[in-house]
Specification:
heterotrimer, A alpha+beta (484), B alpha+beta (95), C alpha/beta (485), B: 95 residues, alpha+beta, Histone, subunit A, 34% helix, 8% strand, flat, C: 485 residues, alpha/beta, Amidase signature (AS) enzymes, 11-stranded mixed beta sheet, 15 helices, 13% strand
């Protein structure tokens, strides 16, 4: 049935900002302290308390706007969104409504080719606005007891990034989300943790018969906390809506919750009444005026973003698009690689080591890039020794392991363990002679044309040298001697 | 009529005010009279007038992103009608 | 002379020369409060012990040579200011036994200036009212005639100063709530320019209109009190970063050559004869003092009430949403779930006038009505403000009545909310325009009740306003007239 319908998806992403303090008060935003310990009159909504805007939040919003090709509004205002809920201390959320800080942006995404919609797409960003988060409602398993409210999270800063309904499949939705996620991580304005709710996604999903102009009625999927669940939720919702329409039913505009246990979405209907948020400009806060100087100052401190970084890596380091994608997926890893490649002339070797052994060891231990014990300087120190043939690529594996566990430099390890490659022609020649002498049968066979045996002789010589003989020289000398 | 009794009931729900029939009746009349008076604003042509949200022209008030001491949970909860385990207890919220 | 009859500047003198002490003053005022408040009901909370401790500390500071303008001066606060450790009620049941964990900025400033806080004053609940009859703690009585209202919403603040229960008080003014009760009780009341005094720690009624100001026995005291609380506050985004002048420096400058405007729209039918006479006499006095009197026009005056009650109630409906029984206050929970808890708590906690304004404000903001009511009112507000900007091109100050009548009888106007709202016509515009305004005693009515005259000044023109008021006060017969209690 799917082929008869077009899927339309718009996403609203809440990006929790990693500022030191909350958006409207000086309380810390740090995770993990005891309930209600990080609260003050402002974020508790005590009588008489007033909000004052955290300048860093504005700056982070400008960064996000610039990185997503938005226009930064010269004048934007904060509004109150009025509704009652226990995790909302003031009975209203301070947000932006009519005049948000950023508008008219877009992100470019790539998806696997599938017919007309494969490959490159541009997804519009309607707006980005600043707002305060709500507190946390804790529920007891015991049905007879009530709920509890912890306001530590109340008033922490959020950016809400609203896309146009431009996505046509769950793949595109995920590609967009990953792109946005990558950008906020690159900007260093969000810790990007989906599970802890630092990057939260609501998906508006609808379907319509191909060719139909107007959008179908949408369902809003709320707060799904992993990329996989978002994809599953959207897929389930597409099937549900199509099935409903095919059965002669109608999609109802509603909020639905995705249940990761069942893989299904369920209606929240009846649990909430129709909202009338009564937005109006918050009289406690003043208009936010952003002039060009401010925008340009922020632009000046923007880190290099994924796209320009990729282009630079491909141009400067002659890397393939595929390798560049891997290296730039995560800003910290890209910076790690970049630091190596800046210090070492063989960028490809850097890339191979970073994508290979460095990533493998890091994944084994489940650590962040910052926690990698082999710094770019250490890695480059080792790569230099490979390049000048002090060690072979094989010995380098041993050196790398040792660097990882001890934190010592490659030179120190090579010295201590006597791993220096043997390049003395006389010494190698002697080993070659000895090996040939010890294996007269094989030498005879080789001379009769069994070329495959060269590998055997190389292995024997390397074994005799404990791996330290220069493999190139060994090869050369063996050929010379065996072929006579 | 500027406002009906049904609208008054709706506004009471939106305002989270449990009002009795007498109160709703009285409010319907009173609000109707006040809104009737407010109607005179429509005598004025306000096209092109920028709505005034603040009493004096104001812009850009910020604070630096520096941590200030919080109250701490004890003071935060000192007026709580139903403190539970360092939290504000509320009737069960079903999600 | 009795200690309680002294003005602040007289107390400063006696404290300085050792004639009296902060403890003596505080004891005198506390004694006065306990002797008279059963009749007046001006106080919701009297803090004898804290006040005496603060007075002892003030005397110690003075002995140590640390003297600030308000060191040892007993003052009282409208119960809309949150005070650390002392109950705050806003004259509402919904607060229960609420005790703020912090002091607001104005209170902190008073304390830093050495003031002794003797108690928290009665008011209209959430500052909503013009008669102080909307209090969960009962009405305040006018010290001049206990059958009459003191005005509102800062009724307790005005009555306590007139009755000499405190040397001065702080009130708040959203649509006349300092000036009108000051007029009805025969004291000086100043509403500063919006942004002049921090609103941090002041329980919000209508955030874009609320402003803190002093109620005092005379103009000089008013200048002293304003100087103590005025100034930029980083904790209030709407506070304005403008220099606070020395309000006492040129207080005696006089009004010769000043232009005083009389807005023709304010001198209308419906003004009581005795009020009209008293205001006319004040105008004549200003002319005698060398001021030039000119007629001005504030053409949008008649729309002020409609505009105000849309803007103020809209903001109030949102400001009062935090009183939900979750984090503080008196909760009513009959076990029928969250929404029921909210609705019962709020229905039981708020009085009728508060409910009425929440309902009106919710309605004008609700879907489908926002443009027609709220946005329209905000546009009209801009017109009203422009009226004043235009008028202040021609004159230095505007003189008007404060109210069309002297204090009215208790219960006289409670049945018709709209009529009560309309009685605020002379004072509302200053809040909508954000300008400063002051009420000054200028006579007695036929029933021997005080009448006030209102002076309106340019934004941040408090110094000139006080000079203008002082000139009249010194020249008039009303200086120091007090009710007998």
């Amino acid at each position: 049935m799917r082929k008869h319908y077009e899927v339309v998806i718009g996403l609203e992403v809440h990006v929790q900002l990693t500022t030191n303090t909350k958006i409207f008060c000086g309380c810390s935003t740090a995770f993990g302290s005891s309930p209600n310990s990080q609260t003050c009159p402002v974020c508790l909504g005590l009588p008489g308390a007033l909000p004052v805007l955290n300048r860093q939040v504005v700056e982070n919003a400008i960064k996000a706007g610039l990185a997503t090709n938005c226009q930064i509004a010269p004048r934007s205002i904060f509004a109150r969104k009025n509704y009652f809920y226990p995790d909302l201390p003031k009975g209203y959320q301070i947000s932006q409504f009519e005049l948000p800080i950023c508008e008219h942006g877009h992100l470019d995404i790539e998806t696997e080719g599938q017919g007309e919609r494969g490959g490159h797409q541009t997804i519009g960003i309607t707006r980005i606005h600043m707002e305060e988060d709500a507190g946390k409602l804790l529920h007891s398993d015991d049905p007879t007891t009530g709920s509890r409210v912890d306001l530590n999270r109340a008033c922490t800063p959020l950016l809400e990034v609203v896309s146009e309904p431009d996505m046509r499949s769950s793949d595109e939705a995920i590609a967009y989300l990953k792109k946005l996620h990558q950008i906020v991580m690159y900007l260093g304005i969000c810790d990007g943790n989906l599970e802890e709710g630092s990057f939260r996604c609501d998906a508006n999903v609808s379907v319509r018969p191909w060719g139909q102009e107007e959008l179908g009625t949408r369902a809003e999927l709320k707060n799904i906390n992993s990329f996989r669940f978002i994809k599953e939720g959207i897929e389930y919702e597409i099937d549900r809506q199509i099935e409903l329409i095919e059965d002669g039913g109608e999609v109802v505009q509603e909020t639905r919750l995705y249940d990761s246990n069942t893989g299904m979405t369920r209606s929240m209907r009846g649990k909430e009444e129709a909202h009338d948020y009564r937005y109006f400009p918050d009289p406690d806060l003043v208009p936010l005026i952003i002039d060009n100087d401010w925008i340009e100052t922020v632009r000046g401190i923007l880190p290099e973003l994924p796209e320009p970084k990729k282009a630079r890596f491909m141009a400067d380091y002659s890397l393939s698009a595929h390798n560049t994608d891997i290296l730039t997926a995560e800003k910290a890893l890209a910076d790690y690689f970049d630091a190596c490649a800046r210090q070492h002339k063989d960028a490809k070797a850097c890339a191979n080591w970073v994508m290979g052994d460095v990533q493998r060891r890091r994944n084994d231990e489940g650590i962040s890039v910052a926690e990698i014990p082999v710094t770019p300087e250490l890695l480059v120190g080792m790569l230099e020794r490979i390049a000048d043939k002090t060690i072979s690529g094989k010995i380098a594996k041993t050196v790398f392991e040792e660097m990882w566990t001890s934190g010592k430099s490659a030179d120190a390890i090579i010295d201590e363990k006597g791993l220096k490659q043997v390049t003395d022609t006389g010494a190698i020649e002697k080993m070659v002679d000895d090996v040939i002498a010890a294996n007269p049968g094989q030498a005879q066979e080789f001379s009769e044309g069994k070329d495959k045996l060269l590998g055997f002789f190389v292995g024997q010589v390397m074994k005799a040298s404990k791996g330290k003989a220069n493999p190139g020289m060994v090869n050369e000398l063996l050929c010379k001697k065996l072929r006579g | 009529m500027k406002i009906t009794r049904a609208e008054v009931e709706k506004v009471a729900r939106l305002s989270r005010l449990a009002l009795g029939d007498d109160e709703l009746d009285a409010l319907t009349g009173q609000l109707d009279a006040i809104l009737g008076h407010v109607e005179q604003l429509n005598e004025l042509d306000t096209d092109g007038i920028v709505p005034m949200a603040h009493a004096v022209p104001l812009e850009n008030a910020f604070r630096a992103d520096e941590v200030k001491p919080s109250l701490g949970s004890e003071k935060a909860l000192q007026n709580a009608p139903n403190p539970v385990d360092g939290c504000f207890g509320v009737p069960k919220v079903i999600e | 002379m009795n200690l309680i009859d002294l003005t602040i500047h007289e107390m400063q003198q006696q404290l300085a020369d050792g004639t009296t002490t902060a403890v003596a003053l505080t004891e005198a005022f506390l004694k006065r409060i306990h002797a008279t408040d059963e009749q007046l009901n001006a106080f919701i909370t009297v803090c004898d012990e804290e006040a005496l401790a603060a007075a002892r500390e003030a005397d110690a500071q003075r002995a140590a040579g640390n003297v600030l303008p308000l060191t040892g001066i007993p003052v009282a606060l409208k119960d809309i200011f949150v005070t650390e450790g002392i109950r705050t009620t806003c004259a509402s049941k919904i607060f229960g036994d609420f005790i703020s964990p912090y002091d607001g900025t104005a209170v902190r400033k008073l304390k830093e200036q050495g003031a002794v806080i003797v108690g928290k004053l009665n008011m209209d609940e959430f500052a909503m009212g013009s008669s102080n009859e909307n209090s969960a703690f009962g009405p305040v009585r006018n010290p001049w005639n206990s059958d009459c209202v003191p005005g509102g919403s800062s009724g307790g603040s005005a009555a306590c100063v007139a009755a000499r229960q405190a040397a001065a008080s702080l009130g708040t003014d959203t649509g006349g709530s300092i000036r009108q009760p000051a007029s009805h009780c025969g004291v000086v009341g100043l509403k500063p320019t919006y942004g002049r005094v921090s609103r941090y720690g002041v329980i919000a009624y209508a955030s874009s209109l609320d402003q803190v100001g002093p109620l005092t026995r005379d103009v000089r005291d008013c200048a002293i009190m304003l100087g103590a609380v005025a100034g930029y506050d980083a904790a209030d985004s709407t506070s304005v970063d403008t220099q606070v002048p020395d309000y006492l420096a040129n207080l005696e400058q006089g009004v010769a050559g000043r232009k005083i405007g009389l807005p023709k729209e304010y001198f209308i039918d419906g003004l009581d004869d005795d009020v009209k006479q008293a205001v006319d006499d004040a105008v004549a006095k200003y002319r005698e003092l060398g001021a030039e009197i000119v007629e001005v026009s504030l053409p949008h005056t008649k729309y002020a009430v409609a505009c105000y009650y849309v803007v103020a109630t809209a903001e109030a409906s949102s400001n009062l949403a935090r009183y939900d029984g979750v984090r503080y206050g008196e909760r009513v929970d009959e076990g029928k779930g969250l929404i029921d808890m909210y609705s019962q708590t709020r229905a039981a906690g708020f009085g009728d006038e508060v409910k009425r304004r929440i309902m009106l404000g919710t309605y004008v903001l609700s879907s489908g009505y926002y443009d027609a009511y709220y946005l329209k009112a905000q546009r009209v507000r801009a017109l009203i403000r422009q009226d004043f900007i235009d008028a202040f091109e021609q004159v230095d100050c505007i003189l008007t009545p404060v109210a069309s009548t002297a204090a009215f009888g208790l219960g006289e106007k409670t049945s018709d909310p709209l009529q009560m709202y309309l009685s605020d016509i002379f004072t509302l515009s200053a809040n909508l325009a954000g300008i400063c305004g002051l009420s000054l005693p200028c006579g007695l009515s036929d029933n021997k009740l005080p009448i006030g005259v209102q002076l309106l000044g340019k934004p941040f023109g408090e110094a000139e306003l006080l000079q203008t008021a002082y000139a009249y006060e010194q020249a008039s017969d009303w200086q120091g007239q007090l009710p007998t209690l």
